[in-house]
Amino acid sequence: MTTLDAYLDSSRGPDAADLAVLLRGMAGAGIKIADELARAALVGQLGTTGDTNVQGEKVKKLDVWANDVVVAALDATGRTCTLVSEEMEEIRHSPERCAGARFVVCFDPVDGSSNLDVNGIVGTIFSVLKKRGSGPDHARADVLQPGTAQAAAGYIMYGPSTLLMLTIGDGLHGFTLDRARGAWVRTLAGVRIPTRGRTYSINDGNFIRWPAGVRRFVEHVRAMDVATGRPYTARYVGSLVADVHRTVHDGGIYLYPEDAAGSGKQSTGKLRLMYEASPMAWLIEQAGGAASTLSARILDLKPTGPHQRVPLVIGSPEDVRMAEEFYADRRG
Ligand code: FDP
């Protein structure tokens, strides 16, 4: 079976060799994080640091630790000098590293970290953009590119096995970590999502704050209609990597909408565009799926800030289109 190294070595294009170095760095960080997650309870790595981050969330020890691991791994590649992380308030730009740097990386080192203390599935999500900016504020311009400009996107899922799902624009591929060999082995090639599923995934505890169209859509998929495969079944892990991965595999839809006007604090949604929605959107589109805010394609959004939040509705194309119709009041 093809290893990640062989797959990257066989990719073509002017930046392929540099991208391969960068992605190997990210994959190496993933192995370290997987090891640390496995022994976290034994070495006192669970729980919080006592700090609250700029986004108002309690910082977990593993968030900080994993952030340092990813930063060090990416620095060591020499292929990036501009990083964005959920754990870093500002864009981390290091002009002294820019000589051989070709890419910007946006990442969430431990996504779904509320699952950490309950031994649940978490992941690392990353988005790689080509450096393009110029002028005094070029680092910010390099970062704030739409998802269509991504050169690579992926997530590493720390589950019963450690799985890297990756696209460099030639489809969606999955590499399972073979610890005995110390290699990532391709176990999923050219993954395709079903055009329609029978599963919906949403935090039901937010029901009171959902926009009216989302409520109607969820009522629709919960209703009985054998001919159209309803009612759908419900699944929600509360870890984006796990929820998206299941959706890619089984088909269906994942929704994290904005709060309806006046009903909550997440008026633009919860998930971050640059290192959650955008990479997941490209990954799922590469598998034949769709990703939307319910009124716009995620990959077409013009970013306004490194930690911008957006609504995210992602999954089988027919399910996402149906949710958009309810949201736009064309159905229901
Ligand atoms: P977490 O806060 O645990 O880090 O954006 C992060 C995220 O998890 C996603 O991984 C997950 O899908 C979502 O938030 C869960 O949010 P809710 O707890 O509000 O459902």
Question: Could you characterize what this model shows?
Answer:
The chain has 332 residues and is an alpha+beta fold. The chain is built from eight helices and 17 strands. An eight-stranded mixed β-sheet has the order 4-3-5-6-7-8-9-10, sandwiched between helices. It has a five-stranded mixed β-sheet with strand order 12-11-13-17-15, sandwiched between helices. It has a two-stranded antiparallel sheet with strand order 1-2. The protein is globular and about 55 Å long. The mean pLDDT is 96. It binds 2,6-di-O-phosphono-beta-D-fructofuranose. 2,6-di-O-phosphono-beta-D-fructofuranose binds next to helix 6.
Question: Helical proportion?
Answer: 25-40%
- Which small-molecule ligands are present, each listed once? 2,6-di-O-phosphono-beta-D-fructofuranose
- Contiguous runs where pLDDT drops below 50 for at least 5 residues: none
Radius of gyration: 19 Å
Shape designation: globular
Strand-and-helix sequence, N→C? HHEEHEEEEHEEEEEHEHEEHEEEH
Largest sheet geometry: 8 strands, mixed
Termini separation comes to 48 Å
Structural class assignment: alpha+beta
Helices, by number, come to: 8
Approximately how much beta-strand content do the residues carry?
Answer: 15-25%
- Mean pLDDT across the residues is 96
**Strands side by side in the biggest sheet:** 4-3-5-6-7-8-9-10
Q: What is the β-strand count? A: 17
